[in-house]
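Hello everyone,

My group is preparing for a crystallization screen and wants a predicted model to guide construct design. The compound we'll soak is magnesium ion. Before spending weeks at the bench, it would help to have a computed complex in hand. I've included the protein sequence and the ligand's SMILES below. Output in structure-token form would be ideal because that's what our pipeline reads.
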Amino acid sequence: MGKFYHEAHHVAKLATLHPSHRHLDIDSGVGYNKNNSSMSDGVHMHRRILHVDLDAFFASVEQALDPSLEGKPVVVGGKPGGRGVVSSASYEARVFGIRSAMPLSRAYRLCPQAVFVDGHFSYYRIASQRFMSILDDYSPHVEPGGIDEAYVDLTGSEALFGPAHGVAQRIRERVWDELRITASVGLSTSKVVSKVASDLDKPDGLVEVMPGEEAAFLAPLPVRRLPGVGPKTEQVLKGVGVAAIGDLAALSPSYLCCLFGKTGALLGSWARGEDGSPVEERGEARSISRCATLSRDTLDRPFLLGMLRYLSEKVGAELRRMEKRARVVALKVRYADFETLTRQCRLRGPTDIDQLIFGAVAELLQRQLAGAAKLVRLVGVEVSGLQAEAQLRLLPSVEDRLERLDRALDGLRLRYGYDAVQTGRTLAVQRRAGVFS
Ligand SMILES: [Mg+2]
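Reply:
Good plan to model first. Here are the tokens for the complex, ready for your pipeline.
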């Protein structure tokens, strides 16, 4: 075990196990400029933006923690008999076709000799913090895109650190020396192009796209390589004869708007390598989510509602811990055939009250399951639109009372565990009824 992980061992025991999730929301489209350059001291200069992405992050940490796993196929997500999915696979496991989000049972069939581990999430969190602090040494503008990736704006730092390419190399070396994880880096004038570039030569790659070369670099790549293009978008594009990013770049904004609405024009700009979005400094979590893979597929509504109540309480407790209130509540449902959908609604006012979160998500479930015949495999609750507390309540007396009650329960559970206090609904749900994440 390397020195960093040896020290992390002590911290890991104290760290919380439930990270909140900060999503890179590519549809939010905030603050886009028209070009990839910025003005500084009256000199027109190109931006230098890195996208740094750790390779097979969770699996790499496991290999660093236990050197006997080095060079072996490692699957993080749980034991092969479990009902969860792969959350990370080492490159040795990927050779067998194992991928993230694949059911563990399928991963096992592909490679029975792989080492299956539950995962050490507190270590991942600490390693992630260490990774981000390495990046902080090279720029005040570091924007995490997830637990294992971040954008770094190096524009104007040449006098201090030398050319961006060299900085990218040093970052890769330090991440390896300090964390024993390889990192892949993309370097270009924008976030979108760097993101595509970092993914192109994984693992342990460094791909630089010169200013002015963005569109030519992207053109021959399949559209799926572009952020924001998922399987559905890919299908639609295929239907109109678009397979490569260059074909997408050639479509007119109005045609793209017809196909995809407002995000269509944005996709078109990205395909041409135009993305002026700034690297935003690290903010707070933008959403909190908890979900549960059920121990068996079901359509039993009291059971599903009980599970949602349990997850709502978990989300509510995290909101209160963060002193935030949420404006938007979402329900996630995955059916037995792995079709997954998310439905969300906007609350009348921001809240951190379990009962109001649950009420919203229960209504979404009732609507979702009306006439549904497919069994449910996973349910989840997510809140977003987070804001700081201290806003007037709609119904002060009732809501204050509910919140005081929730906080009192939080305190009891902190001391005696979740099961110490249960509401009528969650009594129906045994804790072993699912795999929580
Ligand atoms: Mg990664």
